[in-house]
Write a structure and sequence with these properties.
Elements (H helix, E strand, L loop, with lengths): L2 H4 L5 E9 L3 H16 L6 E5 L13 E2 L2 H6 L12 E2 L2 E8 L2 E4 L15 E2 L2 H14 L3 E4 L5 E4 L5 E5 L3 E3 L5 E6 L3 E9 L6 H9 L11 E10 L9 E7 L8 E7 L4 E9 L9 H8 L3 H7 L3 E11 L2 H4 L4 E2 L2 E3 L15 H20 L10 H8 L1 H8 L3 H23 L40 H7 L12 E3 L4 H10 L3 H4 L5 E4 L7 E4 L9 H5 L5 E3 L14
Parallel strand pairs: 1-2, 1-13, 2-8, 5-15, 13-20
Antiparallel strand pairs: 3-7, 4-7, 5-6, 9-10, 10-13, 11-12, 14-17, 14-18, 15-16, 16-17, 19-20, 21-24, 22-23
Helix pairs in contact: 2-4, 2-9, 9-10
C-alpha cells in the first residue's frame, strides 16, 4: 500500500475486551463474558468486530452441529427460538465408486461419525441468532469492520487491533471518500477469525505459538443448498462418504444432509495436501453430483446457494499455544476443529467460553492488562473439548500416511476398539503446500463440462454466493514476489491457482501472445483463504479488504 494510505491519523476507542471475529467462537466468548459480568454485577465493556456486512454473512459450514456447548452457554436456547429445527434421525456412511457405492452397516460406522442428538442447521443462521442474543445482553457488535492490523504496546504485548482504511484505490491512493481505520484498544484482545486468520497467522509467527505443535493441515470445503423433489426428501437423514470422484493421492469426503422444507445441503471436503497440480477441487465437487447417490436426490431440483471455505484439520497435534501477552487465540484460528467428527462448532464455542471464564477471573480479580494467561491453554486442553481432540489426534495423520482405505481401517480400529487411546501417536509434519509435484510429473485431468442441471461453472456459482466488493479498491490478495506466478507457478506447476481457487479469482492472460501474466479478479473472492494456504511458494498473502466486502451467505 502507498505511503499516503499508511500515514493517517487514526482515532481510538478503549474497551476491557475486544473480540475479532463474529463466528461461533467469538460470539460464545462475548456472551459468556457478559453473562459472568452480569451475574457478579460488574461493568465490563466488550466490543466484537465482524468483517462481513452483517453477522453470519461469511459463515459457511455443512453443518451438523453437536449442541453440547450451546446447552452450556444458553440452556434455554429452544424456547429462545434458536434455529436448530432438524434433529438427525439416521446416518449413512458410503464408500463411493464411479457408478455405485458400498453402504457400511451401522456397527462399522466409527463412534465419531454417529450423529444421534445432533442437528442439521444453517450455521450462518445459528450465528445470526447468537448475534441477537449478544446484542440483547448489551454487547457492542460492529459488522462491516475487519481486524486488519495488530496494535502492540511498547513492551511487545498486544494492545488491540486497527480496522482497514476505507476508500483506497487499486494503486493505494486515497479516494475522495477516504476514511482512516480506527484503533480499538483493550486490556485483552481475543482473536476468533476462523481458519487461517490473517492476524492469527501473524501472531502465531511473532510469538512462536506453534513451536511445540505439528504443522497445521487444511482442507477446502464446498457446499451447495438445493430445494428438491419432496419424493426424494427425508428430513433428518445424514449421508457421509469417501472415494469417487477423488483419485489416488487426493483424499477427502462428501456429505448430503436433509433439512426441513424439502431442502438439502451437500458438499465435498478435499484435503489440501494433494500433490497433482492439475486437480481442480471445484470441478471435483461438480463431478461428484453426477454420482447416482447424489443425482437421484438432486434431479429436478433447484440450486439455491453456493460457497466454499478452507478449514483447519490438524487437530490436537497441530493445536498451537493459545495465549500470548495481552491476547488469546481461539476456535479455528487456533485449530480446534475435530476432523474425525467433521465438526468444529461445539469445540470452537467451548474454547470461547473458556476464554471468557479465564478473562473474567483475571480481570475481576484485579489482574493486570497485557499478561500471558497460560491458564487458558491448560483449561482448554483439560476440558471435554480438549480431551475430544486428543482422542482424535491420529485421525488425520493416519489418512495422510496410509491413504483413504488403510487409513480408514486404522482409524476404525483406533476409534472403535480403543476410543482413540492407542498407546502411540502418528504425526504428519509435511506442510500441505509442499506436497505439490511438478505438472510434468503428474497426469492431466480432463473434467467434463457442466450440464447446467446438476453441475455448473464458477461464474454462476459465485453469483449465488452474493459476493460483492467495491470497485477500484486496493486488492486484498497480495503477492510477496510478482515474478513467481509466471516464472515458477506457471512454468513448474501449470498455474495451479487457476484451479485451487473456487471462485475464478486467478487467471493467466496473454499466453496466446507469448506474454503470460497473472490477472487477479479480486472482486470474485469469497474469502475462503485457500490461495493463502495452497500456493506452492507461499507467495499469496490474503489480507482483510475494506469492511463489508465478500460473500453474503443466506441459509448456508
Amino acid at each position: 500500500m502507498s505511503e499516503a494510505a499508511q500515514q493517517v491519523q487514526r482515532e481510538s476507542m478503549e474497551y476491557d475486551v475486544v473480540i475479532v471475529g463474529g463466528g461461533p467462537a467469538g460470539m460464545a466468548t462475548a456472551i459468556r463474558l457478559k453473562q459472568l459480568a452480569d451475574e457478579k454485577g460488574q461493568d465490563m465493556s466488550i466490543c466484537l468486530l465482524e468483517k462481513s456486512a452483517e453477522v453470519g454473512a461469511h459463515i459457511l459450514s455443512g453443518a451438523v452441529i453437536e449442541p453440547r456447548a450451546l446447552n452450556e452457554l444458553i440452556p434455554n436456547w429452544e424456547e429462545l427460538g434458536a434455529p436448530l429445527k432438524t434433529a438427525v434421525k439416521r446416518d449413512e456412511l458410503h464408500m463411493f465408486k464411479e457408478n455405485g457405492s458400498t453402504k457400511y452397516p451401522g456397527f462399522m460406522i466409527p463412534p465419531s461419525m454417529h450423529n444421534k442428538g445432533n442437528y442439521i442447521v444453517s450455521l450462518s443462521n445459528v450465528v445470526r441468532w447468537l448475534g441477537e442474543q449478544a446484542e440483547a445482553l448489551g454487547i457492542e457488535i460492529y459488522p462491516g469492520f475487519a481486524g486488519a492490523e495488530v496494535v502492540f504496546n511498547d513492551d511487545g504485548s498486544v494492545k488491540g487491533v486497527a480496522t482497514p482504511n476505507n476508500g483506497v484505490d487499486a494503486e493505494g491512493n486515497h479516494k475522495a471518500h477516504f476514511e482512516p481505520g480506527m484503533e480499538l484498544h483493550a486490556k485483552y484482545t481475543v482473536f476468533a477469525e476462523g481458519c487461517r486468520g490473517q492476524l492469527g497467522k501473524e501472531l502465531i509467527s511473532k510469538f512462536e505459538l506453534d513451536k511445540d505443535a505439528d504443522v497445521q493441515h487444511y482442507g477446502i470445503g464446498f457446499k451447495e443448498l438445493w430445494e428438491i423433489d419432496p419424493a426424494q426428501h427425508e428430513a433428518g437423514k445424514v449421508i457421509h462418504g469417501s472415494g469417487w470422484p477423488l483419485s489416488e493421492g487426493t483424499t477427502g469426503g462428501a456429505f448430503l444432509y436433509h433439512l426441513d422444507d424439502n431442502l438439502v445441503t451437500l458438499g465435498l471436503i478435499i484435503d489440501l495436501n494433494y500433490s497433482n497440480p492439475h486437480v481442480s477441487p471445484f470441478d471435483e465437487f461438480q463431478r461428484m453430483k453426477h454420482h447416482p447417490e447424489f443425482a437421484k436426490v438432486l434431479e429436478g431440483g433447484k440450486r439455491l446457494g453456493y460457497g466454499a471455505r478452507a478449514l483447519t484439520k490438524g487437530g490436537w497435534n497441530a493445536l498451537v499455544k493459545m495465549s500470548m501477552p495481552g491476547a488469546l487465540l481461539i476456535g479455528c484460528d487456533a485449530g480446534t476443529l475435530n476432523f474425525a467428527k467433521i465438526k468444529g462448532t461445539h469445540t470452537a464455542m467451548k474454547s470461547g467460553m473458556i476464554a471468557a471464564e479465564t478473562l473474567f477471573a483475571h480481570l475481576s480479580g484485579g489482574g493486570e492488562a497485557g499478561q500471558t494467561l497460560s491458564q487458558f491453554d491448560e483449561a482448554f486442553r483439560n476440558s471435554w473439548a480438549g480431551k475430544e481432540l486428543k482422542a482424535s489426534r491420529k485421525f488425520g495423520p493416519a489418512m495422510h500416511k496410509f491413504g483413504m482405505y488403510m487409513g480408514g481401517v486404522f482409524n476404525y480400529i483406533d476409534q472403535v476398539f480403543f476410543r482413540g487411546h492407542l498407546p502411540f501417536n502418528i504425526r504428519d509434519n509435511h506442510p500441505d503446500h509442499s506436497q505439490m509435484k511438478k505438472a510434468s510429473d503428474c497426469k492431466k485431468i480432463e473434467y467434463p463440462k457442466p450440464d447446467g442441471k446438476l453441475s455448473f461453472d464458477k461464474p454462476s456459482s459465485v453469483f449465488l454466493s452474493n459476493t460483492y466488493h467495491e470497485e477500484d479498491i486496493f486488492c486484498h490478495l497480495t503477492l510477496k514476489d510478482k515474478t513467481i506466478p509466471i516464472e515458477v507457478n506457471l512454468k513448474d506447476y501449470d498455474a495451479p491457482e487457476q484451479r485451487y481457487c473456487p471462485a475464478g479469482v486467478y487467471e493467466i492472460v496473454g499466453q496466446d501472445e507469448g506474454k503470460p501474466a497473472l490477472q487477479i479478479n479480486g472482486q470474485n473472492c469469497i474469502h475462503c483463504k485457500t490461495c493463502d494456504i495452497k500456493d506452492p511458494k507461499q507467495n499469496i498473502v490474503w489480507i482483510a479488504p475494506e469492511g463489508g466486502g465478500g460473500p453474503s451467505y443466506s441459509n448456508m
